[in-house]
User: Which sequence fits this backbone?
């Protein structure tokens, strides 16, 4: 008897409380399809227990009535500073990745943010920006305005762009970022060379395709054929960014292409954001098609700085000044088709600067949960969570195994967790007030550290970690 007690006491003492316990929440995990009341125990930044019975922690979060989901992974986040990370965190995002444009300096990108980031971050190796360096583009913003986009590269220059792209893949880039509508002078051969670089590193190509519209040449369908073809030829996986804004009225056609390619064994994935309008830099090549267009067409453009709709005359003047424009081009019907397709991950394409930008930055995830799940019931809650967590993690886990431990509520997974009220979660951001943060996200944890508590983002906590591919 005495002996038994002596054994029992140390056994209990070996079970210190967890660092954090999320108690009584409705735990939803899209991989296991778990949907039930559980206690989640977190230790050393990892999920250490998922229990149907109470467990104790040094800190306990009461999640009664709330959904406990994997933290959202945004594959398309241009905003990579504290202002944007705070807005993303209040929309449930725990990992924000710059994969479309990417960076021409992978080591510098990670070094600049390590230890200073509220949420996890990462980037791809940029074709666009490497091209800007090699072609000597004078642009000081994200995208080219001159030869980086509009000058055809020689074979030697293509070789130099590829060399830079590969060096940044070797340094841990999560893929190759391309924006063919911003680099219209990139030939089909140059595109193939970048896919070959990606294939060598088993890295996906994240690509904004060459064009949108229904007119040939230059249709959405043609632009999807170019990159799916390059994937088939080279073996590089391809992720087509914002299918919604690249497809517009061709959305049913491009979704069918992605499905058919996948059914034939190609590794083709895609994403969408829940807004009818896009946003880009007014001086970029994408806007070339508006030069000389009638007022009725130019009126689809709204200047971010002032909120003013443009005319043919003001468009020409503003283009010389630079800045961003919102493009109202899609319909709610096509947006809904893109968002509700089982093929699409949810990705914001978000960027705000000093509170100005597109409402998708602050509101993408909440708008899907409020509008598509709660109000119109076009998506189940589990399907929506899958699009925000498991799908993006699966896109990256072959190139970066760290993502096998993200996007899931599972013992051993990283404790990136979003706790929200499904009855009240809602976006607040508008085209007039794009930085208004979402409501309903009560707790958000990054690597086990709460960055949002009681719906308020915390100051001076930086648990975000750089997510990268192994260096080689
Ligand atoms: Zn884009």
Assistant:
């Amino acid at each position: 008897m005495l002996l038994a007690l002596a054994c029992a006491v140390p056994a209990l003492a070996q079970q210190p409380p967890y660092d954090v316990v999320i108690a009584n929440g409705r735990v939803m995990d899209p991989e296991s399809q778990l949907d039930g009341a559980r206690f989640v125990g977190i230790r050393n930044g990892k999920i250490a227990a998922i229990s149907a019975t109470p467990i104790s922690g040094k800190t306990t979060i009461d999640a009664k009535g709330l959904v406990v989901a994997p933290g959202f992974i945004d594959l398309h986040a241009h905003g990579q500073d504290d202002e944007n990370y705070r807005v993303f965190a209040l929309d449930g995002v725990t990992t924000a990745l710059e994969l479309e444009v990417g960076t021409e300096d992978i080591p510098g990108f990670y070094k600049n943010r390590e230890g200073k980031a509220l949420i996890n971050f990462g980037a791809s190796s940029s074709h666009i920006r490497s091209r800007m360096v090699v072609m000597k583009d004078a642009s000081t913003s994200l995208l080219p305005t001159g030869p980086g986009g509009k000058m055809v590269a020689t074979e030697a220059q293509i070789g130099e762009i590829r060399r830079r792209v590969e060096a940044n893949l070797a340094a841990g880039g999560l893929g190759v970022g391309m924006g063919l509508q911003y680099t219209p002078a990139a030939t089909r051969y140059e595109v193939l060379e970048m896919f070959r670089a990606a294939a060598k590193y088993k890295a996906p190509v994240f690509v904004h395709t060459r064009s949108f519209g229904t007119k040939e040449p230059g249709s959405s369908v043609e632009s999807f054929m170019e990159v799916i073809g390059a994937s088939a030829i080279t073996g590089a996986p391809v992720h087509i960014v914002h299918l919604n804004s690249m497809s517009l009225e061709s959305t049913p056609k491009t979704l069918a292409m992605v499905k058919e390619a996948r059914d034939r064994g190609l590794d083709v994935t895609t994403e969408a954001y829940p807004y009818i309008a896009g946003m880009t830099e007014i001086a970029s090549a994408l806007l070339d098609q508006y030069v000389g267009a009638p007022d009725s067409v130019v009126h689809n453009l709204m200047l971010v700085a002032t909120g003013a709709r443009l005319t043919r005359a003001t468009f020409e003047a503003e283009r010389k000044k630079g800045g961003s424009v919102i493009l109202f081009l899609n319909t709610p019907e096509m947006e809904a088709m893109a968002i509700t397709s089982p093929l699409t991950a949810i990705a914001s394409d978000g960027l705000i600067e000093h509170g100005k930008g597109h409402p998708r930055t602050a509101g993408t995830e909440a708008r899907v949960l409020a509008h598509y799940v709660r109000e119109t019931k076009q998506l189940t809650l589990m399907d929506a969570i899958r699009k925000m967590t498991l799908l993006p993690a699966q896109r990256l886990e072959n190139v970066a195994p760290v993502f096998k431990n993200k996007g899931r509520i599972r013992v051993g997974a990283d404790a990136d967790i979003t706790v929200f009220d499904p009855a009240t979660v809602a976006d607040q951001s508008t085209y007039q007030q794009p930085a208004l943060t979402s409501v309903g996200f009560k707790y958000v944890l990054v690597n086990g550290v709460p960055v949002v508590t009681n719906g308020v983002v915390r100051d001076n906590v930086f648990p975000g970690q750089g997510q990268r591919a192994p260096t080689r």
